[in-house]
Amino acid sequence: MAGCYACPSRGRRHDARPDHPDAGRFAACTSLGRPALAGRDVLDGRRIELQQYRHQTVLLVFFRAGCGSCVYNFKLLREFYKANRNSQFAVIGVGLDKQAEVLRDYARLVAATTPAAEQFPLLWRLDPAHRDGFGEMRHDSSVLVIGKEGEILLRREGVIRNDDWDEIWTYLRHG
Question: Least packed by Cβ within 10 Å: which of 4, 72, 73, 128?
Fold first, then answer.
């Protein structure tokens, strides 16, 4: 048994799948039946937790600043977000960059060039305060759709396919 530091019961020990070399920080949380996420926004430092978005459909985007497929996905995500932001829907970005300053520079650029209504929290996965239950990310761009009860409904590695948008929209409306 390994402790899962990602779930709200921090310290309570339960089974955790060691998907990542740092299993304590990125362990799959099996006691709650759903993954957890907690971290700080890279620009303003506010605490962001997946629990805050309960009863909303969340697009969780793992990415690297400057990655081609990530930039393409974010362009499409912003359009989708803009069109559906009144639908109990949220986006959270999680940077996979090795250096925090690379992600912060990207976040500053986004803040300066994107309307405030189209911005969403950006977390840095290697921040010591970051915890999540999503295991190893094998691609520079991974998108997960988290349902209103915290369950993973869709996981896409790489570029989001056209037919994924129909599925995401369906989850948004009915998930």
Answer: 128
